[in-house]
Design brief:
The chain has 213 residues and is mainly β. Helix content is 0%, strand content 45%. It has no helices and 19 strands. The strands form five sheets. Strands 1-2-3-4 form a four-stranded antiparallel beta sheet, with no helix packed on it. A four-stranded antiparallel beta sheet has the order 5-6-7-8, with no helix packed on it. A four-stranded antiparallel beta sheet has the order 9-10-11-12, with no helix packed on it. The chain starts with a strand and ends with a strand.
Length: 213
């Protein structure tokens, strides 16, 4: 049976690869031996396809987001699920899930352009970033991301064609930035070290943005 690869994440140590295919089961590969591993407990797995995965910088944890609307936290050594945010966006499919640098929080995006910040220690949403203009469900909505110093959360909005920005700690909405694309943006990546990001759109263009300091 042929399955599409939807997302992957390389272990910070370089020896393992987490792979999400069009299937609920998350797979861990040893890059050197190509051996595949899955959690020993089937109940750990999602109920629908996993669409995004990410390792924490310290490699102790990984996070996955699924079309089933759940976000799961995985132990980076045992590959067992240790925490679940059930129906994280009120059951809407998840578009992306990313750790903060200190691995104490997870930023998630729903396919309805909703964005939330979750605290791992309390298993609750502590900030909901509202006001993005997207409406309804979209199979290919763009992911939200922190800027390089994690002071802001950013999300390209399909409806307005602009970049939505919020103060990460308070959720206060900032001024929109027109991105200049003529079709919906499908991917968005911000640099981890400088005020720069790239947008990729269905208009067959990629745009690079950089703020001079």
């Amino acid at each position: 049976m042929f399955l599409y690869v939807l997302a992957f994440a390389v272990h910070p140590g370089g020896e393992f690869l987490l792979v999400a295919v069009d299937h609920p089961t998350l797979r861990l590969y040893n890059i050197e031996t190509q051996q595949c591993y899955v959690s020993s407990n089937p109940a750990d797995q999602h109920e629908r396809a996993v669409v995004d995965i990410c390792y924490a910088d310290n490699a102790k944890l990984a996070v996955s987001g699924s079309l089933d609307g759940d976000v799961k936290i995985w132990d980076g050594i045992s590959n067992r699920c240790v925490q679940t945010f059930t129906r994280a966006h009120d059951g809407i499919p998840i578009r992306s899930a990313k750790f903060t640098r200190n691995a104490k929080y997870v930023l998630t995006t729903g396919t309805d352009c909703s964005v939330k910040l979750w605290e791992l220690s309390t298993n609750r949403c502590i900030v909901a970033y509202t006001g993005a203009g997207g409406s309804g469900y979209s199979d290919y909505s763009a992911p939200a991301s922190f800027n390089h110093n994690e002071d802001y959360v950013l999300l390209p909005d399909d409806k307005s064609g602009s970049l939505c920005t919020w103060a990460s700690r308070t959720g206060d909405r900032k001024r929109l930035l027109a991105l200049g694309h003529t079709a919906p943006i499908r991917d968005f990546v911000h640099s981890k070290t400088s005020p720069a990001f790239i947008t990729c759109s269905e208009d067959c263009k990629a745009r690079f943005w950089y703020k001079k300091l």
